[in-house]
């Protein structure tokens, strides 16, 4: 049995866990932005590094991932710092009990490089594992969770733009006022608004 387990671990550690490795310039958010912001992101988005993960992550692959992330962060120190490390778990099937060890090692790594760790794409099953390990509700300034990778990338872009003073927060406009130009009749407008539901989108 021990030999079989050893063979399994050796073989599975060779499976490529990183499906894709991309820079922010290769995967932009779907947000429509002014030309000035697009120009800024074309220069700044290389500070976003995106890893699309796959398969099953256990202690062997966790160690290999940590080594890879460490190399990537150190390599970019000379050409410009990586500020946002995005991990997409959308194609991950599961992970073992060593997740907590790898998780805290990764957090220490991003802190050491003054970066932000952004995690996204967790299925209900994986989210439940995080919750059991006490990792889903951590109060950690360098850690951020998003349901979808589009939201994660948008947040990273917004942070980069804010650092350059290029992202201005506009006050919210009531829906009734927004509809006023296309539906002048107030009674009809109020009746239409009743069919809408408020949905909060992560920023």
Short description:
This protein is α/β, with parallel strands linked by helices and 203 residues long.
Search tags:
alpha/beta; 203 residues; disordered N terminus
Report on this model:
The chain starts with a helix and ends in a 10-residue tail after the last helix. The relative contact order is 0.13. It has a five-stranded mixed sheet, with helices on both faces. Strand 2 (48-57), helix 3 and strand 3 (84-95) form a beta-alpha-beta unit. The protein is built from eight helices and five strands. The longest helix has 17 residues, at 59-75. It has helices spanning 2-12, 35-44, 59-75, 99-112, 124-132, 149-163, 175-179, 186-193; strands at 18-23, 48-57, 84-95, 116-120, 143-146. With 203 residues, the chain is of the alpha/beta class.
Helix coverage percent: 40-55%
Distance between the termini: 49 Å
Order of helices and strands: HEHEHEHEHEHHH
Overall number of strands: 5
Q: Flag low-confidence runs.
A: 2-12
Mean pLDDT: 82
Instruction: Give the helix/strand class.
Output: alpha/beta
Oligomeric state:
single chain
Beta content comes to 15-25%
Strand order of the largest sheet: 1-2-3-4-5
Query: What general outline do the C-alpha atoms trace?
Result: globular
User: What's the total helix number?
Assistant: 8
